């Protein structure tokens, strides 16, 4: 299944579009990066579980970029599609119909990121 959402292209576009901002606002972006690193670090809650939480928030906030980047991180951390789908069910429960539409994006992102591995 593929919908018009292109997570790989979206991540590339976001990174390219933010490149000048990263230069002009280097201190702010460094601070954001440190916050992200500290918040997502392995601790009492595993990095994978933190990424699942972040993805759920991204879905309920309707952030396509968040979905793409957090699914990519989950893929790298060894998350399974079954784990992803259980979290999508919680998103649908908490977010209703809009959550279901964003869950479709997250599942499509998983398939797009997983495709090179499957080939």
From TrEMBL:
<protein>
    <submittedName>
        <fullName>Alkylhydroperoxidase</fullName>
    </submittedName>
</protein>
<keyword id="KW-0560">Oxidoreductase</keyword>
<dbReference type="GO" id="GO:0051920">
    <property type="term" value="F:peroxiredoxin activity"/>
</dbReference>
<dbReference type="Pfam" id="PF02627">
    <property type="entry name" value="CMD"/>
</dbReference>
<dbReference type="InterPro" id="IPR004675">
    <property type="entry name" value="AhpD_core"/>
</dbReference>
<dbReference type="InterPro" id="IPR029032">
    <property type="entry name" value="AhpD-like"/>
</dbReference>
<feature type="domain" description="Carboxymuconolactone decarboxylase-like">
    <location>
        <begin position="27"/>
        <end position="108"/>
    </location>
</feature>
<dbReference type="InterPro" id="IPR003779">
    <property type="entry name" value="CMD-like"/>
</dbReference>
<keyword id="KW-0575">Peroxidase</keyword>
């Amino acid at each position: 299944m593929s919908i018009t959402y292109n997570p790989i292209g979206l991540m590339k576009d976001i990174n390219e579009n933010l490149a000048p901002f990263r230069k002009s606002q280097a201190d702010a972006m460094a601070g954001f990066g440190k916050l992200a690193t500290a918040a997502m670090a392995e601790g009492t809650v595993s990095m994978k579980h933190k990424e699942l939480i972040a993805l759920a928030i991204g879905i309920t906030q309707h952030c396509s970029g968040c979905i793409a980047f957090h699914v990519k991180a989950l893929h790298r951390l060894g998350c399974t599609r079954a784990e992803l789908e259980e979290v999508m069910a919680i998103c649908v429960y908490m977010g209703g119909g809009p959550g279901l539409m964003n869950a479709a994006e997250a599942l499509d992102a998983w398939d797009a990121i997983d495709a090179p591995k499957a080939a």
